[in-house]
Amino acid sequence: MSLLNVGVIGVGYLGRFHAQKYAQLPDVNLVGVFDVDKARAASVAAECDCDAFADSAALIAAVDALSIATNTPSHYELAGSCLAENRHVFVEKPIAETSTEAGKLADIAAQNQLKLQVGHIERFNPALTAAREYMRDVRFIECHRLAAFKHRGADVDVVLDLMIHDLDIILSIIDAQPVQVSAMGLPVLTDKVDIANARIEFDNGAVANVTASRVSTGPQRKLRVFQAHQYMGVDFGDVSVQRVTRSASWDGTDEPLELSELNYDKGDALRAEVESFVAAIRENQPVVVSGRDGQRVLELAETILDRMAHNSR
Description:
Blueprint: E1 4-9, H1 13-24, E2 28-34, H2 38-48, E3 51-52, H3 56-61, E4 65-68, H4 75-84, E5 88-92, H5 99-111, E6 116-119, H6 126-132, E7 138-146, H7 158-173, E8 178-186, E9 195-202, E10 207-213, E11 220-227, E12 230-235, E13 240-246, E14 257-263, H8 269-283, H9 291-311
C-alpha cells in the first residue's frame, strides 16, 4: 500500500492532536504542519518528526490530504484552496462561517471527486455508536451540553461552538426536515450568545430540545432519546448508555420495565475520526460526516441564531 502524504494547517489545541494521530497511523506520512505561530509549528513538527512549513500553499502542494484546524473564519478560504488543488480535506467544525460557504465547499468537493469530512467528533463516541443500534422511530430528543468558559471557541456564538455538536447528532438520527424552530439565547461573559436553548420540530412529528452553555460550573454532555416503549440516555462524558424498555404489556400491577446500563471504553474518538478519513480516501468510500452534513447543520444553526436575534428585539 502506497503512503498517503498528509499535512495539518493550524496546530493549536486540536491541530496538534491531528498531527499526533496522523504520525501514529501506518502507511500515512505526516509531511508537515503549518501555523501562523511559527514557534508553535516548529514545536509540533519536532514532536511529530515532520517539517514545519513556512506557508500553507507550500504544504498544500506537498500532500494528498490535509486537516484544517484553524479558527472558524479561515475555514472557507483554506478548505477552498485545498480542494481547488485537488486535495482531500478534513476540516474541524463548523465547516465554515455560513451555510452558503459550506455549500460551495461541498460543491467543489463533489465536482473534483474529493473527500470532504467535517470534524463532528461526537459521531465517533462509542456510547452513541452503541445506542444507534436500538434507535427505531425516535420521537423526542433532549440534549444538554454544558461547559466552563474557555477562550478557545469564543470567537463564535455558543450555538456554533458547542450546540452544533448536538444539532449534527440530531440531524443524523431524525430522518426528516426541520419545519419549526423556536430559540432564545443570552450573552454572559462575551458579546456573543453564551447560553442558548432551541426547540426544533420536524416534518415527521419528531421534536428536539437542545440546551448549550459555555459558562457553567461543571461539564455535562448528555443525550436523551424517547421512542415507543423505550427511553435511552447517552452520556458522552462517561461513555455510557442507559436503556429503559417495556418488556411486556402493562396490566396495572407490576411495572414491566427492564433497565440496562452499559459502559464503554472511552477509546480515542479523534483517532477513529482521522482513521475513517484516511480509510474513505483509500477505499473511495463516503466519509462519515460529509460537507453536505456540515452545510445542513449550519443551516439549522443559522435558523436558531435568527430566532434568537428576533426574540431579543
